[in-house]
What does this fold into?
Amino acid sequence: MHIFKSILAGFLLSSVAFAQDEIKVGEFASMTGGTATFGVSSHNGTALAIDELNAVGGLLGKKINLITEDDQSKAGQPATIVRKLISEDKVIAILGEVASSKSLEAAPIAQENHVPMISPASTNPKVTEVGDYIFRVCFIDPFQGTVMAKFALSHGWKNVAILKDVKQDYSRGLAQFFEEYLTAHGGTIVKDQTYSSGDKDFRAELTSIKAAHPDAIFIPGYYTEVGLIARQARQLGIKAPMLGGDGWDSEDLVKIGGEAMDGNFFSNHFSTQDKSPVVQDFLDKYRDRYHAEADAMAALGYDSAMILANAIKHAHSTDGNLVRDAIAATKDYPGVTGKITIDDKRNATKPAVVLTIKDGKFQYVETIAP
It folds into this structure.
């Protein structure tokens, strides 16, 4: 009996020692469900960064243990997952989510526990307004909405219809900022229609939009619905160009929308056609590992992990307060998605690119600075 107890005690001590020899980082992502390509891509980028860091010894002499949980693209899951990551897994930071609604659900829990959280791609302004432990490495919707409104006006598209997803904070916010800039600079919203995530038939909304004769249609939704919307719009004889945001960025967009996606435009975080060595090196590494082309969500996942790692290095600690301060002090970090500076509202100041779709491929159009 005494021998068993001593063996058990030794095992427990070694387990504790092992746990102390690693840095636990939590990640929550939509690995399955309606926005799975977002979650898989951002996770792939994050995992690539973590493996790179571990290959050169990790951080502070310790390996990084990335603990990833699937929120299944479902409301309610992020809060449960983040509570578990903090209370049970004892992670020192959280990476996630892409969708703003999911980040808004998780952020109060991270804030309450003083655990730094970095979203790779949640663009709704409210996300970082939750508190001083919440950050992002992407631009925000006021900027993204303004970019696309400027782009529309520069092409003479003054009379624009909006078709937004009422279930997504991302979509509603982007529509709001697009409308504010467009109407303040001589444009008109000729029709404002809504749909809900998961809808399949948009013909009633599109028929109403067609009757308004818009120069262009702004659809700030996710690829799952946008592809169907584009296909049905063209079937109804609507020829106006369609505009969107980074929620379009998925290879599934063209799989769903087909030829109907050609000639449309969306804002994004980077372009694979960027000749920068930082971008091309990342694309090569991603290709080698996953045998696929990286998208913006993968690049943002990579950047979020590297920004966290950079902060831990500068803090010389995994203490939540010190890491938080170091993330906040990030300036001109050479990320894949551009030079990243975290501003006083914990948002990334960086440019956006506008892409078009031609023959089923995303093509670079222009870069628009903050």
Notes: The chain has two domains: 2-139+276-350, 142-268.
